[in-house]
TrEMBL record:
Superkingdom of the source species: Eukaryota
Species assigned in the record: Marchantia polymorpha
Descriptive protein name: Bifunctional inhibitor/plant lipid transfer protein/seed storage helical domain-containing protein
Assigned keywords, A-Z: Signal
Keyword Signal: yes
Matching InterPro entries: Bifun_inhib/LTP/seed_sf (IPR036312), Bifunc_inhib/LTP/seed_store (IPR016140)
Coiled-coil region(s): none
Domain Bifunctional inhibitor/plant lipid transfer protein/seed storage helical: 25-98
Pfam families tied to this protein: LTP_2
Region forming the signal peptide: 1-22
């Protein structure tokens, strides 16, 4: 029974992440490959991971990053989310803020 609850919670988190990204990004983009990296117990993604491929994709704009940071998903570490671009080797112009917090260049 506990396993079913965990699966349902994970499924809902993925749906919410995809919905927020779709509403806030110019294109419909899924954020689910990065959920394990921005979780409270997550580790920074590897440069060649699916998450980093998504973050470096030109369709994935600063709006997408900010959508994740400002969504306040339960279990998402906002500092880790802010650092995704930096961790994946994507350059972000200075002066970009998400939810009032600076994004590391």
């Amino acid at each position: 029974m506990a396993f079913v609850k965990v699966v349902v919670v994970c499924f809902i988190a993925v749906l919410i992440a995809d919905l927020v990204a779709a509403q806030s990004c110019p294109q419909t983009i899924t954020f689910s490959p990065c959920l394990t990296n921005v979780g409270n117990t997550g580790t920074p993604p590897a440069y060649d991971s699916q998450c980093c491929k998504l973050v470096r994709d030109p369709k994935w704009t600063d709006q997408c990053l900010c959508a994740v940071v400002s969504s306040h998903f339960p279990g998402v570490d906002e500092t880790k989310a802010l650092n995704l671009a930096h961790d994946c080797g994507r350059r972000v112009p200075k002066g970009i803020y998400c939810d009032g917090r600076p994004v590391p260049p």
